[in-house]
Write a structure and sequence with these properties.
The complex is a heterodimer of chains A (307) and B (266). Chain A is an alpha/beta fold and 307 residues long. Chain A contains 11 helices and 14 strands. In chain A, the strands form 3 sheets. In chain A, strands 6-7-8-3-9-10 form a 6-stranded mixed β-sheet, with helices on both faces. A 4-stranded antiparallel β-sheet of chain A has the order 2-1-4-5. In chain A, α3 packs across α4 and α8 packs across α11 (293-301). Chain A is globular and about 70 Å long. Chain B is mainly α. Chain B has one domain. Chain B has helices at 2-9, 19-32, 34-55, 68-99, 102-107, 113-141, 153-174, 182-195, 207-216, 218-231, 237-264. The radius of gyration of chain B is 19 Å and the shape is globular. The two termini of chain B are 16 Å apart. In chain B, 45% of the residues are buried. The chains are: A alpha/beta (307), B mainly alpha (266). The interface between A and B is medium-sized, with 28 and 21 residues.
Chain lengths: 307, 266
Amino acid sequence: MAGSDVLINAEGLTKKFGDFVAVGNIDFKVYKGECCGFLGPNGAGKTTTIKTIHCVLPLTSGKLTVADMNVSKKPREIKKMIGVAPQENNLDPDFSVITNLLVYARYFDIQKAEALKRAETLLKFFQLEAKKEVIIDELSTGMKRRLILARALINEPKILLLDEPTTGLDPQARHLIWDKIRDLRKQGVTIILTTHYMEEAAELCDHTLIMDNGKIIEEGKPSTLIKKHIGEEVLEVSYDEKIMKTLKKKFPEARLEVLGDRILVFTTQPHGIFETFLKDFPLKDATIRNANLEDVFLKLTGRKLRE
Amino acid sequence: MKHAKTTSLFKVPKLTYRVWKVWQRDFDVFMKTWKVNFFPPLLEPIFFLVAMGYGLGTFVQPIQGLSYIQFIAPALISISIMYSSFFECTYGSFVRMYYQKTFDAIIATPISIEEVIAGELLWGATRSLISSIIVLAVVGAFGLISSPLFILILLVAFLGGLTFSTIAMIFTSLAPSIDFFNYPAFLFITPMFLLSGTFFPLTSLPPFMQVFAKTFLPLTHVVNLIRSLIIGNLETSLLISLAWIAAVTPVFFVLSINLMKRRLIK
């Protein structure tokens, strides 16, 4: 992609809180019109990175530009072109659904008539028309998330920052939000999202950056990353000493992982290899599945719990 | 390093018209529940005037040529100014900042954190102005306004309200939790309520306490100004009171904004 298409450019981006390094010297680029996902366990530095992009957290060091504007010099201009859907619900509980949008529009200097028009359209887009006059406390979690997204779009942003847009939602609400994100991408909005859900990243992102402990440890297209780190298929079988030995002999180059009472076999060999193997050694409860981004994520960030 | 930090606390913030967008947000919320917001401040001074003015006042000699009810009427206006802005910018602002995350939502827009806090302070001052109007109406209905200068009380209400707002915001910037406000409420507001020349003249206090009240208690100056304006008694001490408010408020205004910024932007 041409250099002029770079919309967000971070060089040596570092953010410390006291002695704690939340984000340590990272470089990344986000291109115009793409959907870029920041993945990582809790505390990886995703939200911190997002907050530096929309100019609410000053950098400790490094350089960050949005549309060629420096975040520390042009925060107002940058914030005008960005829509933010934060992780925490910060809708205004003192107002109804529609008033939340109108008051937010006022912060952007949008005239009342125009704001009303946009608010109506957004409520329709997110299927919240019926809740127009309802106060925030009476909305379900899914409705609140949708309203936060609607609010993020009130200034018709060129860049949309979504910090865990679907955390805690039921599958229906999640799919609705995914549809809307895809729609927005088609309209040319550049989207940056953070998520714990690898399925979500694989579904929506053109480009993913995997973060851990404040660093970017891998990046690329989801399908490329899967191929590079995992391969095409994964074999899962019940744990057994004998089977383990057979597998080791049969797939010497493969990575075997024991997870509870299951053995996972990751191989870079082409599609169909496990099927052939199972014909010769029919194993009980053996399943072959496609390799996915979650396999990549766990391989790179480990299985240890993060608090 | 320490020096650099201290100077940054007194750096004059850059503010634009966007301050009023924050003010407008608070105003809109207030108007939504105006019935709740208007009635308590209307009833409270009535109770005070009846109980203390008529009831207790029967046993009190005239003070500085004023009957007791005349003496306490300006104090009631002053106290309402103090309470409304102080509680708006402690409990009110803390709830918006900490529980509702309203400030976080606003600073994701072109409005800066400095403008958010300035808007909150001006809103606190506006609440004082609104309260003073309500109490003035009650005091007027009791026939206790005797000078056309009373109209200047509105100015004092806004300025004094701003003083209390900035002090309140400094407490908010330091409050680890909402319970913390019990300290300033009991150790600062209550003594001020009683010792600022409100229910008895300042001269009844021991001299060192008079000095203390004039130096450290803003309510003393607000009461002094309002009592003079309501009866049309202009004297030089008014200039001192006005100067005190005019000197302290801008400093606290800047300080409270910078302290809040330090709390919220890490």
